């Protein structure tokens, strides 16, 4: 059971990285930045040893990647549409 859990965790991490790379034109860079920031923020948290701190950083990266991907997608895809609607108001 423990090996399957590790395989699932690694597959989730690799899948999020693959989504960020494939969706690079749609805000994928935000996902990678969010993962890096999540890792760094959680790395400095509480932990008795470096193994526990790296585990916390891993969880932070897994939480930061989807949030960063959503924010990056909003900025990359949503912001231009909003700006065109604001600038082209009917008179």
Structure overview:
The protein has 91 residues and is an all-alpha fold. It has one domain. The chain is 82% helix and 0% strand. It has 3 helices and no strands. The longest helix is centred in the last third of the chain and has 38 residues, at 50-87. The mean pLDDT is 88.
What Rg do the Cα atoms give?
17 Å
Helical content band? over 70%
Q: What general form does the structure show?
A: elongated
- The CA-CA distance between the termini, in Å, is 65 Å
Largest sheet: none
Q: Can you tag this structure with a few keywords?
A:
82% helix; single chain; elongated; 91 residues; 3 helices; mainly alpha
Put the structure in a nutshell.
By secondary structure, this protein is an all-alpha fold. It has one domain. It has 3 helices and no strands.
Itemize the secondary structure elements and their pairings.
Blueprint: H1 2-22, H2 28-43, H3 50-87
